[in-house]
């Protein structure tokens, strides 16, 4: 009768030997020939074998407990040690419970602090067969084999940061943003939180009150990165800027012919003008006279300056642009261009049209600022626009095209943007059963006049009946305009001009305010061709009813809302139609 082969677990670390090989027997283990002939005594021999092995392993376990923490570990957390080799005949081994097998077959040295926490997990994992560790460097004594949440580098985690943004009226909002959030993303978030109309004209302004500087962030700039270069007194403003990409629509208005020169022949068209600025291989130059403040001094000098892709240069000899006569004033790479808020008062600037090239490393030191002054607003806008185009190039054009592409992808059933423009309002005739669009301009003007007379008749009829008219001078008509965003109340002429300049000198930008000279009148402040003009709105009496007029009573309106609606469709005596209104939003 052939004896059955003993079954040894891989965790017992007992090497099996072939039948033909004759190895020395372990202590208390009979020879193979004796076991073959006396197979009836196999149970006694196996019991002795098991007892001897258990005794030896328990002695090793107690020895391992006394070792230091620096004992090297093998795979699966075992200590490096020599194990007894046993050989013998193949016979059946009694089954051992998993807990006894773990405790006796795998003596693992566990720190006293971690023993109670990992006891159950060690029982589960130690019952599995030993698998080679592909990352042995992670299983050293200094680091655990399992990565903890704090072991990951901070760059892999989604970093968040709080940013405080102010509005024009002084209110503020703290927003939690991601580290990779751009200025456009933050503006859209603020538009959503403030329930504003997203017409792609909102912008984030970097404001430095102690330096008297501010600039609009480009849509692709990272907010966290810009904030890292700002001083503690600096802050972000949330504001409208209709002129942010206006130069892509009317480039000839921004770049006078006498200020632009090209290294190659140009046909002078609008498309060619923009292509030369956006093409990195072209070499456009902006040239002209500017007032330049000397570094570290209070004096200003009028110099001939040219702006190139390599930087801003001034000529040391008249209008010469020879290389030996050009001196570098500022670099475009690590700098940004700002507008001077109060140049005359803070820096003794010769004009109100100041600009500044500020290196990114400068925070509070005004001595390192390159301060410049232009003769008029159009010249300053030309220099600042050229600086942005030469610095960012195609990035600006992509920022300009993204909102248009999104608008083209919108479904026709989606909510339209509620912005007033020349093409969004038309004259309608509802006298019949169905309404129709009035295409004849003369008929449209006649319909507008009839609508005005209808308002007067309804108002007069209600006054005769003894009820208070909804357009009574003492009630609605005198206060209804105060609910509109375009009405800014009792502000000065200088303040209204400042708001127009901040929100972009584009044609049709306007606001209404109370008149300082006539308490019963109002003033319309309008921008046309980058110049700001003021028109007084006077009250006039007709049949005991008060109306408002811009043209000495020729065209009368019951309230200011009707007046604004009319001049958004017809320019009348104005140089252009009302297109964009200045707005202040409370965050």
Automatic annotation (TrEMBL):
Pfam families: BPS, PH, RA_2, SH2. GO terms for biological process: insulin receptor signaling pathway; negative regulation of insulin receptor signaling pathway; negative regulation of Wnt signaling pathway. Residues 76-85 have a biased composition (Polar residues). It comes from the Eukaryota. Residues 89-104 have a biased composition (Low complexity). Signal peptide: none annotated. Residues 1-40, 76-104 are annotated as: Disordered. One of its GO terms (molecular function) is insulin receptor binding. Residues 283-392 form the PH domain. Keywords: Cytoplasm, Phosphoprotein, SH2 domain. GO terms for cellular component: cytoplasm. Its main location: cytoplasm. CDD domains: PH_APBB1IP, RA_GRB10, SH2_Grb10. PANTHER family: GROWTH FACTOR RECEPTOR-BOUND PROTEIN, GROWTH FACTOR RECEPTOR-BOUND PROTEIN 10. This is Growth factor receptor bound protein 10. The lineage of its organism: Eukaryota, Metazoa, Chordata, Craniata, Vertebrata.
